[in-house]
Amino acid sequence: YRGYDSSGIGVIDLKSSQIVLRKTNGKIANLQHLIETHPFPPSSIGISHTRWATHGPPNKINSHPHADGTGNLIVVHNGIIENYEELKASLQKKGHKFISDTDTEVVPHLIEEYYQGDLFQAIRRAIRELKGAFAIGVISKDHPDVGSFHKKAKPLSLPLILLQKELRKEIVLFLLRGSLHGLLLLPPGFQNLQSP
Fold first, then answer.
1. Taking the model in full, what pTM does it have?
2. 127-146, pLDDT tens digit by residue?
3. DSSP letter string over 53-116?
4. Cβ neighbours of residue 162 under 8 Å, at least 6 residues apart?
């Protein structure tokens, strides 16, 4: 136990194309129990995070991943968004509804605000507005075979697990104005990420 206070996992259900979340406060064993009692459907991609509270109390609502207002995408985030209060106020004026106390939740709402069919462009526009040191991961049900990962002055590791020997994954990494950006591409029909 290293000080985290909550954890969560989000996946995209292959059959329904909906995002499925499992989140809990406390130790990872709590999340493990939740997944054992409420298994995930077959999925091709997912993101997860253990949270150490900096904004808002340790509870299920403040646990990552966080969704946008449409339920189209989810985000995990490590670090601090220094200007989240002004971004949140601006987004609320535009009709966005927030449910958590976290700085993280502004990220999926900001991406939603810019999303017009090009997810990666929306993410880049959102990141340009974020101040602070952070790493984020994003998945969207509109792009169920793609995970997008970005960092600004914060460590970011992408563990890749090969679940089939013949599976090949491609990671495209590039620098954009001094920040590392990555795109994880999974082959169509990859269906091996699911609860035991």
1. 0.77
2. 999 999 888 889 999 988 77
3. -SSS-SSTTTSSPEE-TTSSEEEEEEEEETTHHHHHHHHHHTT----SS-STTHHHHHHHHH-S
4. 169
